[in-house]
Amino acid sequence: MHMAEQGTGPLVLLLQGFPEFWYSWRHQMGLLANKGYHVVAPDMRGYGGTDSPVSPTSYTVFNLVDDIIDHFGEQKVVVVGADWGAVAAWHLSLFRPDRVKGFGLSLCSIPAQTPSQTRHQSVPEPGRAEMAFARYDYLTVMKKFLHNKTDLRIAPPGMEISDYLETPSVLPLPIWITEEELQFYADKFQESGFTGAFNYYRAMESWELLAPMARIKNHSSTSMQADIWRQRYWFQRRRWYKGIRRGKYLQDTCSQP
């Protein structure tokens, strides 16, 4: 598992979602390190410099939690996640509350979903999403997903999400990202490809294994949850980025006992 880290002190773990990698937390890492925390932002499996197993069965929530347990020994953590990172953070605190001091979740809906409910309808079919994304260069894909004013990322029937999303090439970039930073994302995905990222959605069939835990309450000691309905996801994402870039929410989470 590849990871970036800064600072010394209590461990804060930052987990990214789709389509990102550790770099998404670059602003928060410095702020929290300056506040006296040891901040670690790994590339989740399938992303960036971390191993990317070919089989979708290697991307269950059990695998995601196991990655964290394996790499951080017996340390207790404050864990913050966005999107799929929030799914991993939630289940870490559910499976191993003894290892979690506090957690923050942003930009996701945690209750288990069936594959038919995911906004990436074409992903479960092997190779289909990869072919659709390959119609665009990597920078264009990043712009479609990371800088787009469409609030609802659901393609109409018969259309791929990568074709449905507009390419905002002539729009001014938001304050939280630059053209150079978008290119950095593009370069990383050009190295790793998207299959690992897509396998998270292909592994959603395995969520039926969590059925016995459906009504278990998460008893981790401290939680800050921003459980955003999917239809409001992208509006809230832009607003959340502006606030979290200043450390507004992460400071609140990490200062809890």
Features:
257 residues, alpha/beta, globular
SSE blueprint:
Elements: E1 3-6, E2 11-15, H1 26-34, E3 38-42, H2 61-71, E4 77-82, H3 84-95, E5 100-108, H4 128-133, H5 138-146, H6 161-164, H7 179-192, H8 195-202, E6 223-227, H9 233-245, H10 248-254
Parallel strand pairs: 2-3, 2-4, 4-5, 5-6
Antiparallel strand pairs: 1-3
Helix pairs in contact: 2-3, 5-7
Task: Briefly say what this structure is.
36% of the residues lie in helices and 13% in strands.
How many helices? The count is: 10
Calculate Rg over CA atoms.
Answer: 17 Å
Largest sheet: 6 strands, mixed
Helical content (DSSP H or I, runs of 4+): 25-40%
Tell the overall outline.
Answer: globular
Distance between the termini: 29 Å
**How much of the sequence is in beta strands?**
5-15%
Strand elements, count = 6
Mean pLDDT: 77
Order of helices and strands: EEHEHEHEHHHHHEHH
Q: Report low-confidence residues grouped into runs of 5 or more.
A: 109-119, 221-257
Strand order of the largest sheet: 1-3-2-4-5-6
Structural category: alpha/beta
Structural account:
The structure is a single chain. This protein has 257 residues and is α/β, with parallel strands linked by helices. Helices cover 36% and strands 13% of the residues. A six-stranded mixed β-sheet has the order 1-3-2-4-5-6, sandwiched between helices. It is globular, with a radius of gyration of 17 Å. The two termini are 29 Å apart.
